[in-house]
Request: fold
Amino acid sequence: MFKSIIAKSLIVAGIAGSMFMFQSCTDSEEDKVKNDEIQLDDDYYEFQVFDMAEHGIPAYISLPDETANIGASTKPDVQHIDDDIYWQISVGPNFTLNIEDYASIKDLVKVEKKELAAKKFFNVKYLVDDPDLIIYERTLVVKGTDKASPTVGVEHRSYHVYGQKTIDGVNYSLESKEEGYEKNIIELMAKSIRSFKPRSAS
Reply:
């Protein structure tokens, strides 16, 4: 009887341990999914509407304001040379969005994805993969693999966004800087890209 009690205790302990391990794994998976989630809602209360007309684009774009808690300035700074096809919008030191005029060229996101696939020193994981907007996590290939960059010492992870919009028949690309940003900045930037619309649509 004593042996039977011990055996039952071991079975109960084994079940409890298995349940704990399962719960731990589940929690770990849930945390991983949560970390990969991108929040792109339609709430723009931390944004200010900015008119790009005086800079050569007949469009409005919503940009983070000082309440966004990213060190944003009250007034966006636009770098652009007349008749040039490039614009750079900065809202403080932690938010710079690059815009390029592609005229009638379409499928900009598709082309960008092909270029990303050709960069062998990076692993790219898409967090948002829409026809007109991608958000991705980029990780340097770790040292020691065949494709690794010789300068790689530690794993470096960054987040990036690339989108395309059409304003009055002209196609524009909008993207984060090459070095990327933290994920929360990219989420704000993606919302800015989604808000980019013709002045005539308002």
